[in-house]
Amino acid sequence: MMKKNLFKTGMLTAGLSAAICVTTASAQDIQAQRLYAQSLAATCANCHGTNGVSAPGATMPVINQLTSSAMYEQLQAYKTGARTGTIMHQLAKGYTDEQLKIIADVLGKKN
Amino acid sequence: MMNRRIFLGQSAAVAGLAMGVSTQTRANTLKTAQVVVVGAGYGGATAAKYLRLLSNNTAQVTLIEPNAQFISCPMSNLVVGGSRQIAEITSPYAGLEKNHGVKMVKDSVASIDATKKTVLLASGKTVKYDKLVLSPGIGLMMESIEGLDAANKAGVTLQAWKAGPETVALHKQIADMKDGGVYALSIPMAPYRCPPGPYERVCQVANYLKKHKPKSKVLVLDANQDVTSKGKLFKEAWAKMYPGIIEYRPQHNVTAVDAKTRTLKFDVQDDIKADVLNLLPLMRAGDLVVKAGLADANGRWSTVNYLNFESTKAKDVHIIGDSIQVAPLMPKSGHMANQHAKVTAAAIVAELAGIAINPQPVLTNTCYSFVNETEVVHVASVHQYVAAEKTFKTVAGSGGLSTAPTALEGVYAWGWAKNIWSDSLV
Fold first, then answer.
1. With contacts defined as CB-CB under 8 Å, which chain A residues touch B414?
2. What residues in B contact A34, CB-CB < 8 Å?
3. Over 60: is that where the pLDDT of A53 sits?
4. Which residues pair with B389 in a beta bridge?
5. Does the distance separating the beta carbons of B53 and A60 come in below 8 Å?
6. Which of A28, A59, A90 is the closest to B355 by Cβ?
7. Is the ipTM of this complex over 0.85?
8. Which residue of B47, B87, B211, B319 has the smallest Cβ count within 10 Å?
9. Phi/psi at B81 (5° precision)
């Protein structure tokens, strides 16, 4: 499943009729970026659950109902100090804006 | 197909990244490589699960663990204090096999052959690996306190620093103590597992004694200069919640124990007698790591490359969790072990897939401590990899402490526990 999907994406990115080696490298770049994005978002999972989904009965604020843009806004609000909290205003300040964007894109609802 | 979404469903997310990934084509051995993980605590269990998740369930992962169930060290001080039962901090391992296809082997590792790339199990079986992840936790240096081994064997002293039967036994000793007795806790020089753990234990034991044996005392004998974590918050809680119960003595290094007379000896100070002796010796990497010759930092901890947690002494052997020589301000905690595991899993998947490992990993730490049965204080930090220094550093202006204990953070602490248990095991 993974290979097929990556290959397809690679083709799209690299454009049509590209040499095989170019397509492969490009697919690998995308695979690498996905991996980095997933592992970055996984830094949140200790408190908010794997892939942002809380375990049954876990008394932690639910985040997986937010859209990616709403999640990014909240993370930015914590980072700038516009929003206070018990711990999130301290953690958000440790990430770059780009990292917060990646996290929100991975964990937020897509539609 | 299991959890396919975590790896594949995010093409929109990565389209806009500018992470400057540059890779070259290398052999993809992800499907054929044998990845062996040793120890199913916060580090090892998480590593096994995320090796499967991040490889879209293609990596072959074996997890070797002698215990039948996971018993959490975080929250175990509540069991020592008697407000919670051990069953509430115990979780099954079944989810790793059922939900993620991790091959569980109930055994322990006797030795490692890093040249042949095999591990020898206690049962006599040999397991071959292409990548090995070691997460054996801590080893207790019993020899650092003269007479401790004998006192433990005589049933006089306990550590209860690895949650399990000792946790329950320590509560029983405290519950059996006469009203007016003394519970003594000795704390070794840092680094040790869970910096705020001893001070949380002080709160939990004092909470129990205040209710059930109010003439009793908690005597804290700390080898360190002062409280090593959340110092102001703990001292305020002790003074406010447990006046007259807790006596804190810094720079008290226990050097010997006499089991017969329940007497402690120190570097400098006069001997002390107590009724319950909870003595924590110096700590080092797990025995397996030490025996394998991988504890290269002072013979106690393992030096690793922080980009993939590979031992600097043995290729394809990755060491995570409490056993490593830490980066500045990096605590030895379950939360941190879980974070090490994810960086390591991603790096191993990348290496096996023939792509570059993440040049910019991030770690967080969140640690909640209960000052009574419901109120909690936290410390939190974010650690970014700094390529120029090849280490993790905390980000200036980030992280921090609670301002005071609250019940809200008590609710979040249980939320954290349930989610991290699930994130590591389910």
1. 58-59
2. 7-8, 10-11, 13-14
3. yes
4. none
5. no
6. A28
7. yes
8. B87
9. -80, -10
Please indicate whether, in this complex, the C-beta atoms of B7 and A9 are within 8 angstroms of each other. no
Peptide bond just before B191 cis, omega within 30 deg = yes
Nearest to A32 among B21, B56, B423 (CB): B21
Residue in chain A nearest B368 by alpha carbon:
A87
Distance CA B271, CA B264 (A): 6
Token pair of B168, please? 């329950």
Q: Judge contact between A11 and B11, C-beta under 8 A.
A: no
DSSP notation for B337-372: HHHHHHHHHHHHHHHHHT-PPPSS-EEEEEEEEESS
Between A and B, how many residue pairs show a Cβ–Cβ distance under 8 A? 193
- Calculate the average pLDDT of chain B: 94
What kind of fold does domain A2-107 have according to CATH? Cytochrome Bc1 Complex; Chain D, domain 2 (1.10.760)
Contact B362 A98 (CB under 8 A): no
Task: Give the integer Cα–Cα distance in Å for B332 and B330.
Answer: 7
Summarised one tens digit per residue, pLDDT across range B237-275 is 999 999 999 999 999 999 999 999 999 999 999 999 999
The Cα A82–Cα A75 span in angstroms is 10
Instruction: Determine, for residues B402 and A86 on separate chains, whether the beta-carbon distance falls below 8 Å.
Output: yes
Return the residue matching tokens 């029983």: B172
Cβ–Cβ of B419/A47 closer than 8 Å?
yes
- CA distance linking residue B344 with residue B10, whole number of Å: 21
CB neighbourhood size of A63 (10 A)? 22
Nearest residue, CB atoms, B426 vs list A30, A31, A55: A55
The Cα of A2 is separated from the nearest Cα of chain B by a number of Å equal to 7
Contact by Cβ (8 Å): B392, B416: no
Residue A31 has its nearest CB partner, among B355, B400, B418, at B355
Single-letter residue type at B179: D
Proportion of chain B in helix, strand, coil states, percent, rounded to 5: 30, 25, 40
Amino acid at B310: E
pLDDT tens by residue, B265-286? 999 999 999 999 999 999 999 9
Find, among B197, B175, B155, B216, the residue nearest to B82 by Cα.
Answer: B175
Residue B320 in contact with residue B309, Cβ under 8 Å?
A: yes
Q: A25: part of which helix (H) or strand (E)? A: helix A20-41
C-beta atoms of B342 and A42 within 8 A: yes
Residues of A in Cβ contact (< 8 Å) with B1? 1
